[in-house]
Structures are given as structure tokens and as C-alpha cells.
From TrEMBL:
MF terms in GO: oxidoreductase activity, acting on the aldehyde or oxo group of donors, NAD or NADP as acceptor
Record's protein name: Aldehyde Dehydrogenase
Family: Belongs to the aldehyde dehydrogenase family.
Keyword Oxidoreductase: yes
PANTHER family, alphabetized: SUCCINATE-SEMIALDEHYDE DEHYDROGENASE, MITOCHONDRIAL
Alphabetical list of SUPFAM superfamilies matching this protein: ALDH-like (SSF53720)
Length: 496
């Protein structure tokens, strides 16, 4: 058990003796009243007071761009981040175990999450060196010699998601930090303890007040921060509802930059010409990796009606091979769901589909034991069902039979989401005819492969309610900075 009684603010690990929030793992153990989530620790339930103190510290450290951190050279900022990465690697085992226990991610995927994060930091450092080289060249135009640089934006409020508590928090925090901004970071509700082993490294590697934590309920801590008008950048990976509410709290929303990665309901489309076994393999990966708890997951699958029976047979066979169990088991595919209320919600989705003519067509589909839910294929899904429009974020594969390709295109047009799509087809002409409509509706079209964020050097964004701004190694560096210029007119005085 990890009972955190400290938080990082203004360069100090401050002691906390106020109320705490208990952390329960999604992993359940038998008790006298049946299966119960295991208590694995607790963390400070901070209040608005501590949040505002952290804001003051970040504001003072930025000091209108005159602070030590925003004025440090790029090379020195890189050196601090490198030092942080060394210290982070010393905590590798602890952090991986905390990811596994806190959100129920398999040990293999928790390890990948940690290692991918370190790789992301290294790629970010390389990209920043490139950007710095390119942007610091002199340009001469119309008698003016100019040199540009990428400058920070100010105080960044950084809020990551529960499904990648380390990796996705750091895909915004690290680029924001390395560009010279100062940071307030609020860990996700499920995935808070994951960060505890890294707080001292933040304290030791960066000047006072550059990185500060915000603990406590979002409703008690975040409104004051937003209403202060002192947050220059809001970066959140989570729901569009929360993002909109937070943006509205800022008194001068036109002065707020928002970098957001939000809801998505990515569709797979399987045409008559598709290699069905390959499509099934990718769709299972895309729909069920980390139990479907990914914004990039495939959350609905359209299959041409002439091949749907064969597709469903192959899909059921593939799903029956999956291994369900505890996250520390070798080769486990489906693990306990991170959010306690999720199994009940998924049950409601299945019942709603059944009430509108759908069926669970695979053996054990939807069967639940505490927070473990066996993947369910629901067929046929239609537009009256929750599963047609809601982002289930869990292990259900809704399958919609279609007759004309206009049906999935219309689905995408009507959708409030616009992140990605996967098209499965073996016909080059058909593929090229489908790229154009979809590429103007979503931000990434995947051909014969699942939807995903990576490789991390690729731009990651979305249209409509799915995103604002772009992440990725290079794009994130741009998103958390502005290109500013020092321009000198070539006249007699300046020639001296
Ligand atoms: O939850 C949303 C993540 O961006 C998904 O990332 O595609 O690498 O699993 P991923």
C-alpha cells in the first residue's frame, strides 16, 4: 500500500495532514461480503487553498516570462529534462507496479506505457534540438534581418486521463515544460499514485515553482484556477463536457490556449473485398486492447451485409481465444475495468441493445465477475441504440450490417466525433475512393489496420468534439509555444 502524505508545491515536498482520498484497485479479492476492490493506498484530498498556492508558485516562477526557467537556454532546459529522465528510470519498477494496481492494466502493457513514455521524452528532446536549429537561422527580407525562436506561453494546467495516467499526462506535461512554461499538474482520479515516485525528481531537476501538483476533487480545486484568469494554457485529455465547462470558467477565454484530446467513437468499415481474417485480428486489437478503454479504440464496426455471417463467426472464434484475468498474469488480454461504475453501464448498453432487437452473439459475452467483463459482440446494432452513438469505453464490439457504403459515411457525417476510422478492403480503387470522404471527416484514416495514436511522431488530433490542437512529438512542442521574432532593420545605427 502507498499512503501519500506529501505534495509538490513551490519547490518543496509539503507535508499533508488533512483528509485523504482512498485508492482502491480494480483488482478484487474475496471478503466476507463477496468480491471487493483492494485498498492500495491514499493521497491528499487537497482544497482550493493548496491549488491556489500552487498557482501562485507557477505564476511567480514564470514571472511574465522573466523567470529563471522561461529564460534558460534550450540546451539547459534539455539538460534538466534529461536529468529528470535518469531519475525517472530509477523509479521504473515502482511506477509500472502502480500503473498495474491502480488502473488494472496488464503488467506487459504497464511496462510498455512506462517505456513508451521514456522514449517519448527522448524523441521530444531530439525534436526540440531540430526545431531550435531551424528556427534560430537568420532571415533577411526587405532590409530586415530577423531571427525567430519558440517562446513559452505561461502557466499550463495539465490534466491527464486514467487510461494512460503516466504516458498521456507526460505527452502534454513534458513538451509544455521543455518549452519553458511553468506547470500545474493534476493527476487523474484513477492513476494518481502512479506519479508519487516521480515528485522528488521534479523537485530536484527543475527550479522552484516550475512543476507543482494539484491534488483533490476537480470540482473543489480546478474552478478557482480557471476563474483566476492566470492559466494561459489548459491541456486536458478527457471528456469534451469537462473541457467545455472548464474553458467557460476562464474570464478571458480568448487569452486561453486549449490543447485537448477528447471523446471519440472510431468506426471500422469492412467491405466485401476485405481479407476477413486480417480485419478480424485488427478489429479485436483495436476494440479490446486495454479492455477498450482507449480514446482511439474501435467502438463500432460496420460490415457489408453479404459477408457479415462469416465475419461474425471469425470474430467470435478470435474472441474465444482471449485470456481473462488478473493484470499480473502472463499473456492476459482482458483485465478488470478501471472505473467502478463501468460494468453496470456496459450492462445497461447491452440491455438497451437487446430491447431494440440486438443480441449478444458470442459465448459468455458480457458475463461479469466484479470488475472483469467478458467481451461481447452485439449484433445487429442500429441507430436507436446507445451502442450506436455512445462511447462505451469498454469491451463491447457493436456490429452494424450495411448495404451501401453511404451508410457508414453518413454515420461519420452525423457523428459529433471525428478522430479516426479504419477501412478494411483489398481493392485499391475502393480504398482510394473512400479516403477522400473520410479524410475530410476525421483526422486519420487507417487502411487495413486498427486505429491508434502511435507512432508518437505522427500528428495526433481530431475533428469536431474529438480534439483541439495537435499533439505528437513535434506538434506538441509547437502547441505549447509561440514563434516569436527579433527583427533588426539594416540601417547605419544597427550596422554598428
Ligand atoms: O486513450 C487514448 C489514447 O490516446 C490511446 O492511445 O492508441 O496509443 O492506445 P493508443
Amino acid at each position: 500500500e502507498v499512503h501519500q502524505r506529501e505534495y509538490l508545491s513551490n519547490g518543496e515536498m509539503k507535508k499533508w495532514d488533512g483528509p485523504v482520498s482512498e485508492v482502491y484497485s480494480p483488482v478484487c479479492f474475496p471478503g466476507p461480503d463477496g468480491l471487493k476492490r483492494k485498498l492500495i493506498g491514499s493521497y491528499p484530498l487537497g482544497t482550493e487553498k493548496e491549488a491556489m498556492e500552487a498557482l501562485d508558485a507557477a505564476t511567480a516562477a514564470y514571472d511574465n516570462g522573466r523567470g529563471e526557467w522561461p529564460t534558460l537556454s534550450v540546451a539547459d532546459r534539455i539538460a534538466c529534462v534529461e536529468q529528470f529522465t535518469f531519475k525517472m528510470l530509477e523509479q521504473r519498477d515502482k511506477v509500472i507496479k502502480l500503473i498495474m494496481w491502480e488502473i488494472g492494466k496488464s503488467i506487459a502493457d504497464s511496462t510498455k506505457e512506462f517505456d513508451r513514455t521514456v522514449e517519448y521524452i527522448n524523441l521530444t528532446i531530439d525534436a526540440l534540438k531540430d526545431i531550435d536549429r531551424q528556427s534560430s537561422r537568420f532571415e533577411i527580407e526587405q532590409g530586415i534581418v530577423a531571427q525567430s525562436r519558440r517562446s513559452p506561453l505561461g502557466v499550463v494546467l495539465c490534466m491527464g486521463p486514467f487510461n494512460y495516467p503516466l504516458n498521456e499526462t507526460f505527452t502534454t506535461l513534458i513538451p509544455a515544460l521543455i518549452m519553458g512554461n511553468t506547470i500545474l499538474f493534476k493527476p487523474p482520479k484513477h492513476g494518481t499514485l502512479v506519479h508519487y515516485p516521480l515528485l522528488e525528481a521534479f523537485r530536484d531537476c527543475f527550479p522552484k515553482g516550475v512543476v507543482n501538483t494539484v491534488y483533490g476533487r476537480g470540482a473543489n480545486t480546478v474552478p478557482g484556477l480557471m476563474q483566476s484568469g492566470k492559466i494561459n494554457v489548459l491541456t486536458l485529455i478527457g471528456s469534451s463536457k469537462v473541457a467545455n465547462e472548464l474553458k467557460k470558467m476562464h474570464p478571458k477565454v480568448n487569452r486561453l490556449r486549449a490543447i485537448l484530446s477528447l471523446d471519440a467513437k472510431n468506426a471500422a468499415i469492412v467491405t466485401k473485398s476485405a481479407d476477413l481474417q486480417m480485419a478480424v485480428t485488427e478489429i479485436v486489437l483495436g476494440s479490446l486492447s486495454f479492455n477498450g478503454q482507449r480514446c482511439t479504440a474501435l467502438k463500432i464496426t460496420f460490415v457489408h451485409k453479404d459477408i457479415v455471417d462469416e465475419f461474425l463467426e471469425l470474430l467470435s472464434a478470435e474472441i474465444s481465444k482471449l485470456k481473462l484475468g488478473m493484470p499480473w498474469l502472463k499473456g492476459v488480454n482482458i483485465t478488470p475495468l478501471a472505473e467502478p461504475q463501468k460494468p453496470e453501464y456496459l450492462k445497461e448498453c447491452i440491455e438497451d441493445a437487446q430491447a431494440h432487437g440486438g443480441k449478444v452473439i458470442n459465448d459468455h459475452g458480457g458475463a461479469t465477475a466484479a470488475s472483469l467483463v467478458f467481451p461481447a459482440i452485439v449484433y445487429p446494432v442500429n441507430s436507436q441504440m446507445k451502442l450506436y452513438r455512445e462511447e462505451q469505453f469498454g469491451p463491447i464490439i457493436p456490429v452494424v450490417p450495411y448495404e451501401s457504403i453511404e451508410e457508414p459515411i453518413q454515420y461519420q457525417i452525423d457523428s459529433v466525433h471525428g478522430q479516426q476510422v479504419s477501412i478494411f478492403s483489398n481493392d485499391a480503387k475502393e480504398i482510394s475512393a473512400l479516403i477522400d470522404p473520410f479524410v475530410n471527416l476525421v483526422s486519420r484514416v487507417n487502411i487495413n489496420s486498427q486505429c491508434q495514436r502511435g507512432p508518437d511522431v505522427f500528428p495526433f488530433t481530431g475533428r469536431k468534439d474529438s480534439a483541439e490542437g495537435t499533439l505528437s512529438v513535434v506538434d506538441a512542442l509547437r502547441s505549447f509555444s509561440i514563434r516569436s521574432l527579433v527583427a533588426t532593420k539594416l540601417n547605419e545605427t544597427n550596422k554598428q
